Amino acid sequence: MKRTHHCNELRLDHVGQEVVLCGWVHSRRDLGGVIFVDVRDREGRTQTVFDPSVLPPEVFARAEALRSESVVQVAGKVRPRPEGTENPKIDTGQVEVVAREVQVLNPADPLPFPIDDPEAAAKVSEETRLRYRYLDLRRPEMQQRLRLRHRAALAVRQYFDELGFLEVETPMLFKSTPEGAREFVVPCRLHPGLFYALPQSPQQFKQILMVAGVERYFQLARCFRDEDLRADRQPEFTQIDVEMSFVDRENIYEVIEGLLARVWKTACGLDIPRPFPRLSYREAMDRFGTDKPDTRFGLELADLTDAFRESGFKLFAKIAREEGGAVKALNAKGFACVTQGQMETMTALAQSFGARGLAYIKVENGEWRSPITKFFGEQEKAALQERLRIEEGDLILFAAGPWQTACEILGRLRLYAAEVLEKQGKLQIPRDRFDFLWVVDFPLLSYDKEMNRWYSSHHPFTAPLPEDIPLLKESPKKVRGQHYDVVVNGVELGGGSIRIHQREVQRLIFEEVLRIPPDIAQARFGYMLEAFRYGAPPHGGIALGFDRMTALLAGVSSIREVIAFPKTAKGACLMTQSPGPVDERQLKELHIELKAPPLK
RNA sequence: GGGGGUGUAGCUCAAUUGGUUAGAGCGCUGCCCUGUCACGGCAGAGGUUGCGGGUUCGAGACCCGUCACUCCCGCCA
């Protein structure tokens, strides 16, 4: 054995024992005579003491030559620290190991960035951290995140196992299914001109598993999407993928609420309230301006469409009378102190959604200061006062236009205002609270104006509400899908649906609603339609973003913080320099010819 | 594809309106120090200011291009 104890193990009980510790030199304090070396491993750290008066000169010389992060093995005897020198900051702070021998198992060069000082390390640029990820991961904060992720994954597996689910692996080498996200394409030697594609999700396989009689499936599934990255999006990521037979929506809610309760309890000891509230898509948009509302704070949207139909403010009146038009407002309570710059930022945000400008009212010194209130009649003012409960110091923001756009504009401004107001101490957003909820009754279909056709809001296997099926052909807009999203604190954690299991309904959606030509539907989904001929049980499922979930548990805003080896915003790995070129011979074997050499 | 931000020593950051030899803290190197734990003290080394052009008597700063990182929009069935 190279070591007898780990570095977070020794206590007063061990005093007098001969021990061997292995680890990294966390810090070395050379006082000229005595030298203290903190040895760190993944469990913690322990102080070792080198005393020249009792050590052979060559051993002491090795201790003098130690450098940060060199890997060492220290043998010695545990003793209590002299009175007054205990260190309450670390778990092993009552004792120290009087070194008898030290071996340098591997020396380390000076580090590119500090890893012993949490404050300094937290400020190091992400670029540097990613380039030297193995050093970054040595930091206790990152070690804790790796453990948190592991514990969460374990809780997921145990929970589903207890409920009789089977974890089934599905292929990574799949084929292209071009209606969804852009895919990573994989060439291969045996099939010139043909390509695998990496799955954007195991959607089709998990439905086939239901036809296969698995009944309860889950998988911690790796998924791939060749789309642009964000703080919460990586080109490869992990989903908790779930599918169940003989269920309706309520069964799925129950299973997933139980899962999340278990994970939150196991990973951070929190009891989350159940059942989760449910909001229809319509209500979520109307009240919060988004389909993934953060309900930890108020600042809800008000609808003023009816109040402005006859308004003297012609722009609002016109929109309010239009089919599908809406006039909405948001009371940013206490934000009348808004600066010019903040107003410009908000105007730019509104404009990015297609608004022409941003109308507002500042409530200061008992009066409404605004470029537009002079056009308002008493009726509009009364409606505003009543629905927005306007008080001194408030800032009212308006959005008018197509209902969805008006909601989305204010939804975005609501988040911005909340962020600013929280920094100013005028709004509390509890960090330790998790507001889970279900958003339900999404429209099954959305209309693509440019392509002049309907497309699936979620995916084409989502079942319509049974009572809406007759509307499919005449008024597709009105059809609601059996789709649901689970949302927490403004983050879309996951989504799923009850699937279509009748071949005829599926064919109707493909051919008559989505207008996918039969030969193409056959080529892409033929095997599914065929499978559904042989006894497909009613089924449904969901997929949760495991990285996002872990980031929430860790209290970090980027999923890169909970992925061991994440990629940059351009999809590169700074440590391994991937993606990289391949040599001519490989290309030839794959029957691929480059039209242009790779950039760089 | 579009918009914003950043790029100066190994790391984190300064550098007035464009003006002397580009500074500081940490780290590193050397010396001193026997109870420290962010040890302390003294001294020292360390720079293609991301890269390429331009404006100017003079550019880290201004202009154009480019690269990298980051945030957002589009995109993510």
Write a structural description.
It is a single chain. With 600 residues, this protein is α+β, with helices and mostly antiparallel strands. The protein folds into three domains: 12-106, OB fold (Dihydrolipoamide Acetyltransferase, E2P) (Beta Barrel), CATH 2.40.50.140; 155-172 and 199-278 and 436-575, BirA Bifunctional Protein, domain 2; 297-423, Gyrase A, domain 2 (2-Layer Sandwich). The protein has helices spanning 57-64, 118-123, 126-131, 133-136, 140-162, 203-211, 249-268, 281-288, 314-321, 340-352, 378-388, 403-423, 503-513, 518-531, 546-554, 584-589, and strands at residues 18-30, 35-41, 44-50, 71-80, 95-106, 166-167, 185-187, 195-197, 216-224, 236-245, 278-280, 301-303, 325-332, 360-364, 367-369, 395-402, 436-440, 445-448, 453-456, 483-488, 491-498, 539-545. It has an eight-stranded mixed β-sheet with strand order 6-9-10-22-21-20-17-11, sandwiched between helices. It has a five-stranded mixed beta barrel with strand order 1-2-3-5-4. The model has no long low-confidence stretch (mean pLDDT 93). The structure holds one RNA strand of 77 nucleotides.
